[in-house]
């Protein structure tokens, strides 16, 4: 199920996440329509589109938080499992960062980051702690390790959520509007962490309205509308020369 197409980006590896003809309904609503998407190792794909176009559902389907009725989704050539231990492993391999940070409020920042590696990855506590502190340092919140989530700002909490995902050594990271719930002054501190993660070679699928981030960090922009991928291109081409009326309309409204 490999795909030899070269992505428009540069320096990309083999296909990692591959969706072929994926369809999903919520009752009568056809929410994902014949989705075909290949994300290569090390590639950063930014997904944009109007509200309700199916971006969150796409992310949730890749993480198997949602089922789908037809088509295939593979990660490293393996079809997504639907249950059991294999599903738990998939959830660990595919990191996801949501709009709401979803940290465990009764656990410290450090515990939030070590919990998954200890419980799911069976790491020893000391090893998990050392790695967690490295990651908290990387996202700039190592000084807050002993605090509780409510004692941190939204931007700090979202950076912890990113560190927590990274602690599982994910194969790919999904971000679903990670800065939408943040006060404006905190958006950049989160985007900076994501940009540096992108530069480090992490494979990323990012749903965002932050076009500056898309221009700077994306290898490819995927534009969704009404459940379908309408257009995909390099950010430069997409932003300067959108092809479809729907993309032109969407970009026009952002100005
Ligand atoms: P986006 O993230 O692009 O805003 P979503 O993937 O959240 O879009 O939603 C796509 C469409 O599916 C919307 O019309 C939304 O109302 C609908 N939808 C999302 N989740 C559910 C659900 N659990 N049950 C029914 N409809 C849903
Ligand atoms: Mg959404």
TrEMBL record:
<dbReference type="GO" id="GO:0005524">
    <property type="term" value="F:ATP binding"/>
</dbReference>
<comment type="similarity">
    <text>Belongs to the ABC transporter superfamily.</text>
</comment>
<dbReference type="GO" id="GO:0016887">
    <property type="term" value="F:ATP hydrolysis activity"/>
</dbReference>
<keyword id="KW-0029">Amino-acid transport</keyword>
<keyword id="KW-1003">Cell membrane</keyword>
<protein>
    <recommendedName>
        <fullName>ABC-type polar-amino-acid transporter</fullName>
        <ecNumber>7.4.2.1</ecNumber>
    </recommendedName>
</protein>
<dbReference type="InterPro" id="IPR003593">
    <property type="entry name" value="AAA+_ATPase"/>
</dbReference>
<keyword id="KW-0547">Nucleotide-binding</keyword>
<dbReference type="InterPro" id="IPR027417">
    <property type="entry name" value="P-loop_NTPase"/>
</dbReference>
<dbReference type="InterPro" id="IPR050086">
    <property type="entry name" value="MetN_ABC_transporter-like"/>
</dbReference>
<keyword id="KW-0813">Transport</keyword>
<dbReference type="InterPro" id="IPR030679">
    <property type="entry name" value="ABC_ATPase_HisP-typ"/>
</dbReference>
<dbReference type="GO" id="GO:0015426">
    <property type="term" value="F:ATPase-coupled polar amino acid-transporter activity"/>
</dbReference>
<dbReference type="InterPro" id="IPR003439">
    <property type="entry name" value="ABC_transporter-like_ATP-bd"/>
</dbReference>
<feature type="domain" description="ABC transporter">
    <location>
        <begin position="17"/>
        <end position="251"/>
    </location>
</feature>
<keyword id="KW-0067">ATP-binding</keyword>
<keyword id="KW-0472">Membrane</keyword>
<dbReference type="Pfam" id="PF00005">
    <property type="entry name" value="ABC_tran"/>
</dbReference>
<dbReference type="InterPro" id="IPR017871">
    <property type="entry name" value="ABC_transporter-like_CS"/>
</dbReference>
<dbReference type="GO" id="GO:0005886">
    <property type="term" value="C:plasma membrane"/>
</dbReference>
């Amino acid at each position: 199920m490999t795909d030899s197409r070269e992505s428009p980006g540069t320096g990309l590896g083999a296909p990692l996440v591959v969706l072929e003809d994926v369809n999903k309904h919520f009752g009568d609503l056809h929410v994902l329509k014949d989705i075909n998407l290949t994300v290569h190792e090390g590639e950063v794909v930014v997904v944009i589109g109007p509200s309700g176009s199916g971006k969150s559902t796409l992310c949730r389907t890749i993480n198997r938080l949602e089922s789908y009725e037809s088509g295939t989704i593979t990660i490293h050539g393996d079809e997504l499992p639907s249950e059991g231990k294999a599903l738990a492993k998939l959830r660990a391999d595919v990191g996801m960062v949501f709009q709401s940070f979803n940290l465990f409020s009764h656990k410290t920042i450090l515990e939030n980051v070590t919990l998954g590696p200890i419980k799911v990855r069976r790491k020893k506590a000391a090893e998990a702690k050392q790695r967690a502190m490295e990651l908290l340092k990387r996202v700039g919140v190592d000084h807050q390790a002993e605090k509780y989530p409510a004692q941190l700002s939204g931007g700090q909490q979202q950076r912890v959520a990113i560190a927590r995902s990274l602690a599982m050594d994910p194969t790919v990271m999904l971000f679903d509007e990670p800065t939408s719930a943040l006060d404006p002054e905190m958006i950049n501190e989160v985007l900076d962490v994501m940009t540096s993660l992108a530069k480090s070679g992490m494979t990323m699928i990012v749903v965002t309205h932050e076009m500056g981030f898309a221009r700077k960090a994306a290898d490819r922009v995927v534009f969704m509308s009404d459940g379908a991928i309408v257009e995909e291109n390099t950010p430069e081409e997409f932003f300067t020369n959108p092809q479809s009326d729907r993309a032109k309309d969407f970009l026009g409204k952002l100005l």
